[in-house]
Model the fold of this input.
Amino acid sequence: MAAPKKGRGSTGGQGRPGRALALILIAMVALTGGIFLSGHTTPRLGIDLAGGTSITLKAKSQPGKPDAINETNMNTAVGIIERRVNGLGVSEAEVQTQGASNIIVNIPKGTNSKQAREQVGTTAQLYFRPVLTVADGAPTPEGSASPSATGSAKPSAKATEPETASGSKATPSDGATTQGRAVTGALKKDATPTPKASTSGAAESSKSPAATEAPDPATAALQKKFTELDCADKEARVAAGVGVKPEDPTVACSSEGDAKYLLGPAAVSGTDVDDAKAQFDQQRGIWLVSMEFTDKGSKKFQTITKKLSAQQSPQNQFAIALDGEVVSAPQVNEALSGSAEISGSFTQQSAEDLANVLSYGALPLSFSEDTVTTVTAALGGEQLQAGLIAGAIGLALVVIYLVAYYRGLALIALLSLLASGILTYTIMALLGPAIGFALNLPAVCGAIVAIGITADSFIVYFERIRDEIREGRTLRPAVERAWPRARRTILVSDFVSFLAAAVLFLVTVGKVQGFAFTLGLTTVLDVVVVFLFTKPVMTLMARTKFFGGGHPWSGLDPERLGAQPPLRRSRRVNARTDHPKEA
Done:
């Protein structure tokens, strides 16, 4: 009973190779059609092949936080930067850590690559702070006339109507001393004082000028910092907010440098913003950024706006401070909750930039650009050409070996390599828009290595067939009997290769992952090609006179292989010889 089952299985395997070939051919046609329908007929290239910019960001130590630079914060920063860059539509950007304090950002050459570069290191520390005092951005040396204090600053972001937000000028001060008194009086009050407190504070200032001129050391230092701050100096604008804690008052400049602010403790932080979008206001004809707060943030925002709406200008304003600069300082006339909008002198790009950084969060660390390297498209083209030449040389050596050693069997191997190449190319082209896969130089190396892995599977099968022929079997039975043994060897070999590729992909970062991904992909495709293409084609070729008849150039000539007499005939002779002796 066992013999007929084996015979039927063998015959079935020989009689249905067309099904497997039809399946893989349909897959190849579908994938080829897919790349043309999607418009992505070539794989996307990485920065080392297409050109682009590589930025190394170095984390800066935080005042009062010696342990801020740690693995958790670095990984958080990587995730935020990656979401920011991808949020701008920049594909194939790579963001990864290097060492303990560096982050490498690779931005391929593209439409939004310049815009992405401007955002990768932006800290985006956002705070809503009540305004205590506002003045023109120029410094006020003692004894000279002070610029007038204003009720708002540009860009004049609106929480109310534009006319209200623009405000009117407050009473001008006559010198640094007068401005200093205003600063001291504001600091003595609560960050969000009541009108009564504001009136009494002003009275106390008029009755006791000596008291306002002798503040405590911290207040005096902040007063001096505010008075001397020159917002026209970009470095001074940045340094003004360095090391300031959210719960402390601070000074800040407007983003345009035309006004400076004395700000109270932060009432709402950027982490309380749930979502932000750039929108165009058709009625006013301006770009603005609308924000939605979290439940917790909404309550905080309602509390601060309720208090501010009861104040006089400029203390009824709240400043939206981003990375130490006041993006806008709208006035508040009523309590607000749930959402807010920032408007002013925004362009479409600047509004989208601000919405992007607000949506994807603030970086937990401050970074500086350590190095910036630009790879030109010409250099990338040269590297791609060198990789293709290396691949062509490797393929040529494999072909020469196959033809010299396996002769006619080399045709089957080359057809299998062609099928593997078509599948690999089309899948890589489709993976670009699907998952952002980018072909870089290590990935090209992985594809070259895959040529040898795929050829090795053919060689295993061919040698198993030859072994069966050497034992005296004809080609058609030899093809079927060799397959189970070759199949096990191929599966074990490919499993080891895939496991190595998977481990390499998981434990490495950056370009090495491209090598591992390509190696794993081609290993899987090797199994598909051998099972659905090489084996069926070999079965069909065994039925031809050229291969089945053992032509000298077929690579399966029994005489050249040193074939033994048929095994079945040998067993019958032995049986007949041994039977009389047993009798």
